[in-house]
Amino acid sequence: MRILQVSSARAFGGGERHLSDLARGLRGRGHELFVALAEGSPLRWRLSFLPEANVFTLPLRNALDLPGALRLSRLAREKEIDIVHAHVARDYTLASFAARRNARARLVITRHVLFPLSRAHRLALSNVSRVIAVSGAVARALRGQKIFEDEKIRVVENGVDLTRFEQAREKFRKEGRAGDGAPLRVGIVGEVSPVKGHVEFLHAAAQVAEVFGGGVEFFVVGDDLSRGGAYRERVSGVVEEWKLSGRVRFLGRLDEDELPRLLASLDLLVSASRSEAFGLAMVEALACGVPVVATATEGAREVVEDGADGLLVPVGDVNALAAAVVSLLRDEARRRAFGERAVEAASARFDIARTVEATERVYAEALGGGRAPGS
């Protein structure tokens, strides 16, 4: 198949990691991959495995960008594209326009988030062949909106390159900690934003620190995309308010080599999100053999097996979050057992090869091949 991936993403997050891993996997299975990106896209360096001639920069300004839609349509026609696959909501209508103007092309979109599409999408995306939901929760949200026919919706969970995380895990095991008595390490990974619950995480961290004193370090990984870094300032203020200075380290966004190393070094990953459609950081932690303590968001309930590879607590309950972290930090044997189960779960459910094969089946359906067994 000749596949055009479309993404106007201006920041790099879980959805963008998924797209780059998916593109690599599809190319490895013999498909011809093309990508259309916005100017300055953070995805470009992650797609360096593609020939330069297959990577295109388009305006992709918004859903009403007619010049961008025309250029995308021309690209699809000139490259004889079979599948136009869009990942960001503002790109859906542009990709739909491109597919409409090319009899050969079929439109596939991926929905990475839970918040609803507008009713205008019912008409604008009437030509969509398949809609990929990254979790059962997203699929249920889509069906509830009644914008797409149920038979067009497919659940394909995001996967990760397990090898990268296995290597990081083994390297950490060989090297070990800096020395006996080194602090326990607890981290939170994701965009620094209110929905990810960083303030709640730090409130819980303060309670944990009361129990362990200087025996625990806390790591915050991710960019602050708020205007002028306003939210990061608020979070930094919480660090001061709760007397966590010197115990919390802000690492910003880590690259594809640094993140697995950091995750492998953690004793626990915490997800304090208020809402989560899937939770790729949780999957990556499991792949490193790191237990997860998470608020019971829609996505966390599909990733974490409560009492087996992590613990789930009510959304917004800081006391429960802190108590769960304390309980696992105090119980090394249970933590190790959770970590072993985490690796098994990641291997069984979240290998990127599984995601690539499932997406490939969705493409085949879109092109008229029918629903493949096991899809």
Structural features, described:
The structure is a single chain. Helix 7 (198-212) runs parallel beside helix 8 (230-241), helix 7 crosses helix 12 (318-330) and helix 10 crosses helix 13 (332-349). The strands form 2 sheets. The chain has a 7-stranded parallel β-sheet with strand order 3-2-1-4-5-6-7, sandwiched between helices. Strands 10-9-8-11-12-13 form a 6-stranded parallel β-sheet, with helices on both faces. The protein is built from 14 helices and 13 strands. It folds into 2 domains: 2-159 and 351-369, Glycogen Phosphorylase B (Rossmann fold, 3-Layer(aba) Sandwich); 162-349, Glycogen Phosphorylase B (Rossmann fold), CATH 3.40.50.2000. It has helices at 14-28, 66-78, 89-100, 120-124, 136-145, 162-175, 198-212, 230-241, 258-265, 280-287, 298-303, 318-330, 332-349, 352-369, and strands at 2-7, 32-38, 55-58, 83-86, 106-111, 128-133, 153-155, 184-189, 216-221, 248-252, 268-271, 292-295, 310-313. It has 375 residues and is an alpha/beta fold. It starts with a strand and ends in a 6-residue tail after the last helix. The model is unreliable at 370-375 (pLDDT under 50). It is elongated, with a radius of gyration of 21 Å.
